[in-house]
């Protein structure tokens, strides 16, 4: 049963339904959801968190799907969603407010079978083809840390994985939890030790709703 007062509920979920933006792709993680092959429904930690929070505030849940966390943030000014779960960086703070952290992760690179790249430092060489998902905190961080090559952003994780599978990628920038789930799909591929980014995963919300979202999140932990 909800113990959130009506004023807070109205501010967190102004339509009367909690609209949670989720990134749907090919690798499950604290940010990414994957689609069930039989039902077509998305699943993952972000979905479970969304259901828990909706239940705790006493609002019906609507999942709003996007191809990446960057697309989620881009849609924020339109008012299409109330809450989400994404990494945080300075660019995103210009667009949305962030609630409590729910996960601390690391980002690194996956390299294909037979690659001579053995460390994160090896990635930063001229001619190394680095790819990631555009407008994500991960690819922005990769670009900040690369000095001899650059990272090319693609519109979705599926597109990035297709290029990796076709041999067009030397290093794929992504969160470690996603990469661990992807490795079995690419025999011989390896995830590089260490990290070039260690972002918190807080829950972004619409501007002006942060204080009320914090109280809702705190209630969900009680």
From TrEMBL:
- Show the segment(s) annotated as Disordered: 200-222
* Protein keywords: Plasmid, Signal
- What Gene3D superfamilies does the database record attribute to this sequence? Periplasmic binding protein-like II
InterPro entries hit by this protein: Solute-binding_3/MltF_N
- One Pfam match, given by its short name, reads SBP_bac_3
Residue intervals of the Solute-binding protein family 3/N-terminal domain: 17-217
| Residue spans crossing the bilayer | none
What protein name is recorded for this chain?
Answer: Solute-binding protein family 3/N-terminal domain-containing protein
- What organism is the protein native to? Microvirga ossetica
